[in-house]
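Board notes (copied after class):
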Amino acid sequence: MAVGMLSAATVFAQAAAPAQPAAPSPFVFKGDGGVILNFVKADKTADFEAVVGKMKEALQKSDKPERKQQAASWKVFKSADPAQNNQVLYVFFIDPPVKRGSDAGPAV
């Protein structure tokens, strides 16, 4: 019985520990635009394009105006030239990024 009580005390002690601040998102742009380079294995481009297409479609169909704005400002380009190591380069241009609020930087 003492083991059960000890385990419960340990769980409560862990739950009471203060949360660590979240790491800043690499997808928050502090300027008036953003660029993301994506290197994709050549045999995975169809999968990548399918996921990007679903993400863009979800943003466009969202009821939230800021999501629709994100879809409109997000441009995706595929390089015609092969990148190193048999990869394909996809470039995302976000212009303008959607603003989060007065105290935060722009967000993708």
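Comment from the instructor: The mean pLDDT is 80. The longest strand covers residues 34-41.
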